[in-house]
Specification:
Keywords (chain B): Cell membrane, Membrane, Transmembrane, Transmembrane helix, Transport
Largest interface: A-B, 30 and 25 residues
GO molecular function, one term (chain B): ABC-type transporter activity
Distance between the termini of chain B: 28 Å
Helix content of chain B: 55-70%
Number of strands of chain B: 6
Radius of gyration of chain A: 22 Å
Largest sheet of chain A: 6 strands, mixed
Order of helices and strands of chain A: EEEHEEHEHHHEHEEEHEHEEHEH
Strand content of chain B: 5-15%
Structural class of chain A: alpha/beta
Membrane topology (chain B): Multi-pass membrane protein
Strand order of the largest sheet of chain B: 2-1-3-5
Structural class of chain B: alpha/beta
Protein name (chain B): Transport permease protein
Radius of gyration of chain B: 27 Å
Number of helices of chain B: 14
CATH topology of the largest domain in chain A: Rossmann fold
Family (chain B): Belongs to the ABC-2 integral membrane protein family.
Oligomer: heterodimer
CATH superfamily of the largest domain in chain A: P-loop containing nucleotide triphosphate hydrolases
Order of helices and strands of chain B: HHEHEHEHEEHEHHHHHHHH
Number of helices of chain A: 10
Number of strands of chain A: 14
Strand order of the largest sheet of chain A: 6-7-8-3-9-10
């Protein structure tokens, strides 16, 4: 059974097509990631699915409720955590939680079990105003508030943006334990490294979905030989590699460049080429493709190639 | 209902925890009433005057005593000839000279028109007008108080002021201040607080909750309705006890009218907030739509009768105009329901109009 069915949905703001002809399905109990850079249309898609926006065309069903026709019923069944911190800054942790519990016709005690693991981490500060919390604590509180009415489907829009690395990891651990309780979770993130933590992911760019699969299978889409290359002069290195006949694409990737090849050659062939262009301190190693490699590859297939 | 109460509770938290809101809510009425009531009033106290009494009779002395005991005037100098008038004025200390001619008592007791000349320093025209008005009113009152015993006395100054014979400034300003504060608190604060929810993104979360739009708006409005009503009462109390405003009419009627006006102001606030998503725009719209027209076109400061025709027509759509008139009618003139019925009806119609517009703009979704 699918918890979310999105069927050919589109939404435009004036002339800007934010989401165009998107279709995908999320299974019940799945932790599904929507991966894409800023402006990919993730937030617009989320707002339609939580009934905040009407789609221009197409339809979507969340938890067996149509997002347009049954929006009132649906609103009590989804938990939504917007990308921007959207709690009352002048209310304390406890007051915020209590407010959302009451508004949804329940109480903190009634569903304490569900939020317990998260809430205990911020409970020592429960009389502190939400505006004075750190980024990580704000996220935890927002998650508690989105969970307090025991939703069937949880929508988290970029929950880890602007949060430190430790809190990010903690946050994903929390999502995993929520998933074990049978909750369906749709989460969006611009961080490719978080994609591997999802059951399945959809890569999104320019309002379109590029691919939907498990993180492992997504990387299998990447067929070309891939090398990580480093040398003393990075800028000249990227220029020379992009001009090489064996190169399919070349992107900066941390301190290394990721070089995808048109056809199989050895690392020593590459080294010879670079040496002939007077590069020093050359370091080349074969690597397995990651999500980001696939993403860059998929983008270059659908739009104008990024290399120039 | 529990949901709704939780919302109202939250709203009170917002108000009580925001120092700026609190300041506007409770500081503003005091400051405004005190400013307009004392500092900015066009009422003049203890103005220096000179007296030239050529008659030196019982009547002139009694009239002088009356002038001085009013609190508006104090004698700077007693003059002995007309020549001195000009000199004294040139010193710039006195604002007014009262001249009794030699024949004053004779004319008065023989039924002729007795004359008193009042010369005022008109370089400050408003002060001059006020002072001459005070003086004529006081002299007039002398006439009426002795009219029973002796034949009527005629004076060349023939001004008659009803309801506010001594033109007390507070009478004019307090209803205006009350109107202004209620408008400001009710309309501006409501529109800003709704816009704030939209700006902060909390409106999104409220939308995706079982709260209906009606509950959200009513939850926003009710705390301000309560606070505005308290404010209105505070202003009334200040006006009556501090500024000695009369309370001649029916208090219950006045309170009901106040509630109606607050309701109207709130509905304007809700309407403004339905047009914009930004606190700044909401604030600005409140200022332009309400504050400035209320100050300038409602008759609060400038009399409507002396406005150009075009502005007089525009003043008809300013809600404050009607409320100020109602308050004056009830408090100062003490007239009842019938006299204010038409103005009340206009206010009610305006309230319905804005509520109707707001309902039309009510949304279940963003955008």
């Amino acid at each position: 059974m699918n918890a979310i069915i999105v069927d050919n949905i589109s939404k435009a703001y004036g002339n800007i097509q934010a989401v165009s002809n998107v279709s995908f399905e999320v299974r019940e109990g799945e932790l599904f990631g929507l991966i894409g850079p800023d402006g990919a249309g993730k937030t617009t898609l989320f707002k339609m699915l939580v009934t905040l926006l009407f789609p221009d065309q197409g339809r979507a069903v969340v938890n067996r409720k149509d997002i347009v026709k049954d929006f009132l019923q649906l609103r009590t069944q989804v938990g939504y955590m917007p990308g921007k911190f959207s709690l009352y800054q002048d209310l304390t942790i406890e007051e915020n939680l209590d407010f959302f519990a009451t508004v949804f016709g329940t109480s903190i005690q009634e569903n304490y079990d569900l939020i317990k693991d998260i809430y205990v981490q911020i409970e020592p500060f429960k009389t502190r105003r939400a505006g004075k919390l750190s980024g990580g604590m704000k996220q935890k509180l927002a998650l508690c508030c989105a969970l307090i009415h025991k939703p069937e489907v949880l929508f988290l829009d970029e929950p880890t943006t602007g949060v430190d690395a430790v809190s990010r990891k903690e946050f994903w651990d929390m999502l995993k334990s929520l998933k074990q309780r049978g909750l369906t979770i749709l989460v969006s993130t611009p961080y490719m490294d978080e994609a591997g933590l999802c059951d399945r992911i959809a890569l999104m760019q320019g309002g379109k979905i590029l691919a939907v699969d498990t993180p492992q299978d997504i990387t299998k889409l990447f067929q070309r030989p891939l090398f990580a290359v480093k040398a003393a002069e990075t800028f000249r290195l990227i220029q020379d590699l992009r001009n090489a006949s064996f190169t399919h694409s070349c992107y900066a990737f941390g301190e290394y460049l990721h070089l995808a090849l048109e056809h199989e050659i050895t690392s020593s062939d590459i080294e010879t080429y670079l040496a002939s262009h007077n590069h020093r301190q050359i370091d080349i190693k074969r690597v397995d493709p990651g999500i980001e490699d696939c993403f860059m590859d998929l983008i270059s297939q659908t739009s104008v190639p990024a290399q120039s | 209902m529990k949901r709704f109460l939780a919302f109202v509770k939250k709203e009170f938290f917002h108000i009580l925890r925001d120092r700026r809101t609190l300041l506007i809510l409770f500081g503003l009425p005091f400051v405004q009433v005190l400013l307009f009531g004392f500092a900015l009033s066009n009422e003049i106290k203890n103005a220096n005057i000179a007296i030239l009494d050529n008659d030196k009779s019982l009547h002139t002395q009694q009239i002088t005593a009356r002038l001085l005991s009013s609190g508006y005037f104090q004698v700077y100098q007693n003059l002995s000839s007309y020549k001195e008038i000009d000199q004294t004025f040139r010193k710039g200390v006195i604002k007014m000279v009262v001249v009794f001619p030699t024949q004053f008592s004779y004319d008065y007791e023989h039924g002729r028109t007795a004359q008193i000349q009042i010369i005022a320093d008109a370089s400050e025209q408003n002060t001059a007008i006020s002072l001459t008005n005070y003086a004529s009113a006081i002299i007039q009152s002398y006439t009426t108080s002795v009219a029973g015993s002796i034949a009527p006395m005629y004076i060349d100054v023939n001004t008659r002021m009803v309801f506010n014979p001594e033109l007390k400034g507070a009478f004019v300003f307090v209803p205006g201040v009350m109107t202004l504060v209620l408008l400001l608190v009710s309309a501006m604060m409501t529109s800003v607080t709704i816009a704030r929810e939209k700006e902060m993104g909390t409106m999104e979360v409220l939308f995706v909750s079982p709260l209906s739009q009606w509950q959200i708006i009513l939850g926003k409005v009710i705390p301000y309705l309560a606070l505005s009503f308290v404010n209105g009462c505070v202003i009334l109390i200040l006006g009556v006890f501090l500024l000695e405003l009369p309370m001649n009419g029916n208090l219950l009627l006045l309170l009901l009218e106040t509630l109606l006006f607050i309701f109207l102001a709130l509905s304007i606030g809700v309407f403004i907030s339905s047009l914009t998503d930004s606190q700044l725009v909401a604030m600005f719209a409140s200022m332009v739509i309400m504050l400035l027209p209320t100050i300038f076109l409602s008759g609060f400061i400038f009399p409507i009768e002396s406005m150009p025709k075009g502005l007089q027509v525009i003043s008809n759509v300013i809600p404050a105009k009607y409320f100020i008139r109602i308050v004056k009618n009830i408090m100062i003139k003490g007239i009842g329901m019938k006299a204010v019925a038409l103005d009340t009806l206009v206010l009610a119609a305006m309230a319905l109009f804005f509520i109707g517009l707001s309902i039309r703009n009510l949304k279940t979704h963003l955008a």
